[in-house]
Amino acid sequence: MNYIKRKIKQTFFDCNIKYNNFEKNIINTQKPNILILCTFSIFGGIEMHCLAFYKKLKEEGYNAYILIPKDSALEKKLTEKQLSFYSYKQSKIFKPNRQPGLKKAVLGIIKKHNINIVHCNRAKDTHLLKGVCPKVKLILTRHAASLIYKKYIKKFDAIMAVNKSFIEKVQKKFPQKIIIKITPFFLENESLNFQSKRSKQKFFKKEFNINLENYPTIVQLGGLTNVKNHKILFYAANELINKKNKPVNVLLCGDGYNKKYLQKLAKKLNIQNYIYFLGFTNKKIEVIYNSDIKTLTSKTEGHPISLMEAGLLKKALIGPSKTGITNTIIHNKTGLIFENNNAQDLANQIKRLLDNKDLLSKYGQNAYKHIKNNFTSDILMSKIEKLHKKILEKKV
To answer: Distance (Å, rounded) from C-alpha 254 to C-alpha 284?
Structure first.
């Protein structure tokens, strides 16, 4: 009976934290000790940011650690890259920031490694940091545009925000709060160093078992969810294919609850032979490379990584107005902006590029320069190191 009680307690009241150690980096003891919290299980833009940021910290000699859910997509990525990490067993019964035993584990890591700065990616991560020493500084990376509750904002020593709208809201209500504009980290070298070793047709046949027609190719990355608004791309494709006689291949990288709906929509619009659902793939960089245009149709966005990846591959970009993509897409320079949620305007912008191959090349070259000069990890680390210095020098 006592054994059963112990097992129940272990299952429901212990997050079973584990340290997976791979590398033995040379640590610069003059730099602050960093802990990154990432309590997300899927792999999207936030998880990519955490992975790339953590990797950069390690490369720069920081004594850095990251805590993630066990069996998550991020755990797999960190293992592939042989980066050390703490992992914990996440129960679906409890909310990500209310996992039994997780708070104790976080405080234990902070104490064991003499952590100076904790980087959070959820406002509610503060629940895990109650009782932490005031000398430990807390930084929130806010990936969305919506404002968070005052009680959370007050608990962070600084905020790094990817969305200009969010920054304006915070500065208006909390003028004394330290907040900086920061774009998400991403694995830029995957794009910068990519070299194709096979033809477009051979790549898609081998990796996805599809015989891609020799039409201009449009690619969109992102989960198949309402927020990404794929249906606008479908209606635009219908306009191009069935009304303007301009056939295109449309490649969708990602998966999600809207897949069946989108498959039915493709059949309804009679474009099913031009739409390819590639699912979640580790070959996304090569998919982008073998495409002509990178689109994004989201209703809302912070600063999407997929556009930056495509820009470094010198692809022309198309995205919606009134979103954070305008940081990356400068209309008529690095790509084209279409009116948010307007399929007809999206079709018109795509047609502009299809009718003018010189624009495709020009926008691709401009996108490459813009992103490389503004959003690479060296530039971002310079901003973050200044922020670290500022908050560590601030009196408690």
So the answer is: 9
Contacts of 338 (CB under 8 A, 6+ apart): 318, 319, 320, 321, 345, 346, 348, 349
Q: Give the position of tokens 């509610």.
A: 124
Q: For position 334, which CATH number holds?
A: 3.40.50.2000
Structural domain boundaries enclosing 331? 188-374
Which tens digits make up the pLDDT trace of 19-44? 888 866 566 678 999 999 999 888 88
How distant is the alpha carbon of residue 181 from its chain centre? 16
CA distances from 143 to 39, 45, 351 (A): 14, 9, 32
CB 334 within 8 A of CB 317: yes
Q: State the Cα–Cα distance between residues 263 and 280, nearest whole angstrom.
A: 16
Q: What is the CA radius of gyration of the chain?
A: 23
For residues 212 and 162, membership in a common domain is answered with: no
* 337/67 Cα distance (integer angstroms): 38
d(CA 35, CA 360): 42
Give the residue among 122, 97, 75 at the shortest CA–CA distance from 15.
97
**pLDDT above 60 for 3:** no
Q: Which amino acid is at 225?
A: T
Q: Does 382 score more than 90 pLDDT? A: yes
Among 3-12, 57-66, 205-214, 357-366, the minimum mean pLDDT is found in 3-12
Question: What type of residue is 153?
Answer: I
Number of domains in the chain: 2
- Is the torsion defined by CA of 40, 45, 48, 54 positive or negative? negative
Residue 209 pLDDT class (50, 70, 90 cuts): very high
Reported as half-sphere exposure (CB side, CA atoms, 13 A), residue 93 has a value of 8
Cα distance between residue 91 and residue 11, in whole Å: 9
User: What is the DSSP-derived secondary structure letter of residue 283?
Assistant: T
Residue 3 lies in a domain: no
In this model, does residue 98 exceed pLDDT 90? Answer: no
Please list the alpha-helical segments (H only) found in the chain: 2-13, 45-59, 73-80, 102-112, 150-153, 164-173, 188-192, 200-208, 230-238, 259-268, 284-289, 305-312, 343-354, 357-374, 377-393
Percent of the chain with pLDDT strictly greater than 90: 78
Evaluate whether 318 touches 348 at the Cβ level (below 8 Å): no
Do residues 382 and 338 both lie within one domain?
A: no
Six-digit token string for 391: 């908050």
